[in-house]
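Take a specimen:
=====
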Amino acid sequence: MLSMFQSHHVRLWFLFTILTTSMTAAATLRADDMPTYPADQTFDLWTDAQLGNTESDNTEVYQPRGDGNGWVTKINRPTLAVYLPSKETNTGTSIIICPGGGYGGLSIEKEGHAVAQWMCDLGVTAGVLKYRCSGGANEHPVPLQDARRALEIMREHASQWELKPDRVGILGFSAGGHLAASVATDAEADINYAVLVYPVISMRNGVTHNGSKKNLLGKEPSDELIAEMSRDERVDAETCPTFLVHAGDDKAVPIENSLRYYAAMQKHNVPGELHIYDRGGHGFGMFRDDRPVDSWPNACKAWMQINGWIAPEEKADAHASSDATRASMDDNQPGWKPLTQDDFVHVNSNEDTWSWQDGVLHCTGRPVSVLRTAKEYRNFELVVEWMHEKPAGNSGCFVWTTPESIAKLTEAQKPGLPDGIEVQMLDHGYTDMIREQGKDTSWFGTNGDVFPVRVDMTPFPPLSPNGSRSFPRQHLAKGHGQWNQYYIRAINGEVRLWVNGEEVSGGTDIQPAEGYLCLESEGSPIQFRKLRIRELP
C-alpha cells in the first residue's frame, strides 16, 4: 500500500507527465500555452492598469524540466491559484505558498502546485502565489507587494470559503522562503504561522544566496536595505510560530540561514521547530524518496496538528465534550455527586486559607498548600468551576495525589505541594508577570497544562520543551474575574482535560492511578464552585 505522500507523488507525477509528454526538457512555452492546474479558482493580483500592462504584452515564459516540474520566468501578471478542500474536510485554515527560484523565476510545480494539493488534502485552503521576480523592475518591494495582495484576496474570501481569521499561514521554499519570512516578520501582515523550507533568510555576505540577493536588491544595495531584508534581524516577540527545514549538505543556500532565524526565534521566545537533515541538498521540494529529507512533510503535518491548525475536531471527542458539559449542568444525571465542605480535609494550610460561603469555596492563596478530599478515588469524572480574583493568579487541581505525600505534608505542616498529576489553572497575566521578571516562560503553558509531579505520566502533545508537560491545544480559559469550567476524566491511568467544553490536554501511562483529589493554594486568591464528581467502574 502506498503511503499518503507516495500516493501524492504518483498522482502528481501522472499529472505533470501528461502536461509534458510531447515536450522536450529544453522547450519553452509562452503564456498562452502554459499548462493548466487543478486549482479551483485563479485570481489576478492586480489589474493591467495597476501593473501598467497592455492586453498584448504578457511576457511570461514556461519551461518544463522533465521531472514533474516546470520553471516560470518573466512574470508580469502575478496570480493566486487557490485550492479548496471539501466542505467535510475544511479546517478553516489557509496558507499562501511561495515557490522558490532565486528571485529569478519560480519552481512552480514541485514547490507550488504539488504542495497546494497536499495542503488541500489536509483540509487547508491553499493558494499558490505566482509572484513577480527576475530583478530589474521586479526588485524589492515588488514580490512583497504581491504576497501582501495574495493575503488580502484570501481574507476577502474568508466568509465564502469558511476561513478562520486566526489560522492564516505562509509557506515558502528557498527564495520563496525569504519572501515568506518577510511576511512572517511583517507586523502588518498579521499571519499566524509560517513554514520555511531551505529558506534564504539573510542578505549578509557569506550567508546569503548571491543570486537571490542580486535579483531582489540589485547590484549595489545599501547597508540599510541589506539589514532590512535580512529577516532574522527582523524577528521579534510578535513573530508568528515557525517551522523550518534545511539539509546539512545544502550547497546553494547555507544552513546558516535557518540557524540564524531559529536563533532569533529563541531569543524572542517565538515557538517553533527546526528540522535539520543530514542529506538532501537543495531544492528537494515535497518528494525525494531516497533521502532523509523525504520525511519533512510528515513532521510539518504533525506540527500543524499539535498546534490545532489542521487537526479537525474529532466527532468522538466533540461528543464527549458535549456530554461532559451537560453532565455538569444537570443535577438529574445519574451518578453525579456534589462535593461540599464535608468532603474535604485540611492538609497543610492555615485555618483561614479555605472558607465556604454560599456554596463557593474561597482560597486566599497563602500559604502554598492543598485541600484534599476525604476519600481516595480511582476512576472518575470531575467538574469544577474556578475564577481567579486577581491578575497573574496561579492555582491548580491535583489528581491521584499519593497518600504518602499527603501524610508528609500533614505531618510537617509546612508550605508545599503533593505528588500526583497537576491540572494547571493560570490567569492570562501570569506569563507576562514572569517575563517581566526576566525569567524563562517557555517551560509552561497557560490554562490547561497537565503534568506529573514526582509520579509517572506520558503527556499528550503538544509538549513542553523538555517533554514533561502536556500543553493545551487551544487556550480557551477566560481571564481573572470570570468563571471557567474544567471537566476532568481520569480512567485507568489516563487523564484528559476539557476547558469550557473543549478537550485540550492530558496524559496516559500514569502511575499511580489512584489517590486523593486536591485543590491548590499557590499565592493568589481564587474561588471554586459547582464541584461535582461521578465515580466510574
The radius of gyration is 27 Å. Confidence is low (pLDDT under 50) at residues 1-26, 312-332. The CA atoms of residues 252 and 282 lie 6 Å apart.
